[in-house]
Amino acid sequence: MEKEKSVGVIGGMGPEATVDLMHRVIALTPAADDADHIHMLVDNNPKVPSRIKALIEGTGESPGPFMAEMARGLERAGVDFLVIPCNTAHMYHAEVAEAVRIPVINILDVTVRQVLERHPNIKKVGLLASTAVEMTRLYHEKFAQKGVRVLFPEADLQHDVMALIREVKAKNYNFDSLTRYNTAATALKTQGAECLILACTELSVIADKLVSDIPVYDASQLLAEHIVDQVKGEHKHVKSALSEH
């Protein structure tokens, strides 16, 4: 019998987002007993240098070498492929991929592919993400290749989204910050977004707090589905906290 694939998780960015991905993988796995679940080796390392300090503030060291070393360690441990449950950290995806011989799944590619499969005629998508994702244009380039325009909230509303991301990390978000977050989401629809993408795994942690009457896709959920598909061939279809009309 062929050995089932195992997955290595380059985590800690942030730590709760990493655990959230693990929960999603477990929920999506067709399993009747413990042994039916997926073997995940997780380096949940919150000591990876700040992506925000490196990319936005320009004051921090690059996370790339740290992530590459984590990847090498997981490869030595015997995993078959790697994932990074952090959208912003994919600025360093190429550096990580060059450090190992096994595949490093790209959450951006998975998300873009799934959104376009479900909405082949879409022209505008709205992103709720870190300001670093906006600055680095990680999603802009990939969607532009398919003729799709990426929208971000206006500057003041994007500031509110970024503030909420920091609050989720500190576990001190409140009703007011969630209200401003949902205002940003509504504004994206007003700008013409035909669907929304949660492109920050911290926002995935509070996915059920988003209110929207247009389809919403969670990059963390799509990555979890991809992991299960890679290992098991298919994933369970479970009810999501998000709307996919």
TrEMBL record:
Q: Name one GO molecular function term.
A: amino-acid racemase activity
Alphabetical keyword list: Isomerase
The protein depicted here goes by the name Aspartate racemase
Among Pfam families, the record links this protein to:
Asp_Glu_race (PF01177)
Entry's SUPFAM superfamilies?
Aspartate/glutamate racemase (SSF53681)
Q: Which family does it belong to?
A: Belongs to the aspartate/glutamate racemases family.
InterPro entries, sorted: Asp/Glu/hydantoin_racemase, Asp/Glu_race, Asp_race
| Source organism per UniProt | Oceanimonas baumannii
